[in-house]
Amino acid sequence: MEHKGTVRLESERLILRRFEMTDTDAMFANWATDEKTTKYLRWNPHESKMVTAEYISGIISLYLNPMTYNWIIYFKDEDTVIGSIDFHAISDRDERLELGFCMGSRWWNRGLMTEAVRTAINFAFGELKAHKIGASYQEENVASGKVMMKNKMIYEGRLREHYRRNDGTFSDVLYYGIMRQEWEKRR
Ligand SMILES: CC(C)(COP(=O)(O)OP(=O)(O)OC[C@H]1O[C@@H](n2cnc3c(N)ncnc32)[C@H](O)[C@@H]1OP(=O)(O)O)[C@@H](O)C(=O)NCCC(=O)NCCS
């Protein structure tokens, strides 16, 4: 792959850009404290702005590494940041990345994450020359699966009792993927 780091990307309604410390207040207000947002995530709502500031500072320190892909999502219409999207579990050998995303519930169901994911997928195949992008979600997180399907990702399998929920029970995880040749075909 040809790594480029977290460069600025733009779509019709969104700008994907690097986190900045000045995003702390908006992240805290718009999604880091939103229990609906964190319900299926691997972290709990932030208890103070200090937690959000430390989180952002940690991401910023990783930007020196050109294999870091972690964008904050800026919503042009409302002039504010509303969520984030990232690539993790990057395997250069396999030319593969995995997508993660989250957004404040006030902005759900308007196609915004589908648009952000489309932008990130186009970047990974078009600019980074990735071979495959994967993503997975806890099975009851139907909206997350829809975002993957609407981006033509294909169901690959079920990881049984793969995540531990906050209540101590375990949940299956569904894995989706898209390969370069599938992305090229649909363009
Ligand atoms: C998952 C998430 C990113 C979706 O973002 P979004 O901008 O609302 O997504 P979109 O509007 O692009 O698409 C959501 C789709 O799910 C559908 N949907 C939402 N809730 C649903 C539900 N409970 N059951 C069935 N479909 C549902 C919407 O109708 C929409 O489909 P449609 O366009 O065909 O109508 C957002 O809900 C979120 O941030 N959740 C919390 C964090 C998270 O779970 N991240 C993913 C971890 S894998």
Please explain how this structure is put together.
By secondary structure, this protein is an alpha+beta fold. It has a domain at 9-132: Aminopeptidase, CATH 3.40.630.30. Helix content is 31%, strand content 33%. It has helices at 24-32, 35-38, 49-62, 112-126, 142-150, 180-186, and strands spanning 9-10, 14-18, 69-75, 80-91, 96-103, 132-138, 154-164, 170-179. An 8-stranded mixed β-sheet has the order 1-2-3-4-5-6-8-7, with helices on both faces. The two termini are 20 Å apart. The structure holds coenzyme A (COA). Residues 37, 40-41, 83, 101-103, 108-114, 137, 141-144, 146-147 line the site of coenzyme A.
Structural key phrases:
globular; Aminopeptidase; single chain; 187 residues; eight-stranded mixed beta sheet; alpha+beta; binds coenzyme A
